[in-house]
């Protein structure tokens, strides 16, 4: 995992250096990101999740129009977690905007980055193809092998298990996914992960009270 994380780190830094070549700047931004994702109360929204997201985005790289922008948005999409007002996506997007402005990242790309991060709140079908690939890559945990899915469920419970009526809320979320015509909006990810995701979700629902 460490070696692959190095690949993600280098990829992110290389993107940042295109707009500010000072290596100290890209290192500072990366260290801030790492520090957040290694937060002690995180169990699922960790570097491991980020690594899977990155792996999935690499798979569909040739199908997207701006893979570098998707990687930047991916790195920041969960950078703020468990905020008091439960606006993690909004706060993550705001931090991304602030940091990207500081390096002279193009305004249009900053706006798109914010849109991508906010899209992970609902994972709804978008008219923008890149947004659909981004959301699908974020959701692939649902369709991975049984052991990986069960570890994900355990970690989600560790993060949110103290929430009142957790089981009821979790079941509602899972039923929402099953009620979708397509959990995965792109043909690419739908073909790989749709069926196993539905099997995993149905199994989890059956285990809930």
Could you characterize what this model shows?
- The protein has 209 residues and is mainly α.
- It has one domain (2-207): 3'5'-cyclic nucleotide phosphodiesterase, catalytic domain (Catalytic domain of cyclic nucleotide phosphodiesterase 4b2b).
- 68% of the residues lie in helices and 0% in strands.
- It contains ten helices and no strands.
- It has helices at 2-17, 23-37, 47-59, 67-76, 88-102, 107-119, 129-139, 146-160, 166-179, 187-207.
- Helix 1 packs across helix 2, helix 3 (47-59) runs antiparallel to helix 4 and helix 5 (88-102) runs antiparallel to helix 6.
- The mean pLDDT is 95.
Q: CATH-wise, what's the superfamily?
A: 3'5'-cyclic nucleotide phosphodiesterase, catalytic domain
Radius of gyration: 17 Å
DSSP summary, beta strand count = 0
* CATH fold-level label: Catalytic domain of cyclic nucleotide phosphodiesterase 4b2b
Basic shape: globular
H/E element order: HHHHHHHHHH
Assign the CATH architecture.
Answer: Orthogonal Bundle
Question: Regions with pLDDT < 50 over 5+ consecutive residues?
Answer: none
Number of helices: 10
Percent of residues in helices? 55-70%
CATH class, named Mainly Alpha
Structural class from helices and strands? Answer: mainly alpha
Cα distance spanning the termini: 35 Å
**Overall domain count:** 1
Mean pLDDT: 95
Our estimate of the beta-strand percent is under 5%
Multimeric status of the protein: single chain
Tell me about the largest β-sheet. none
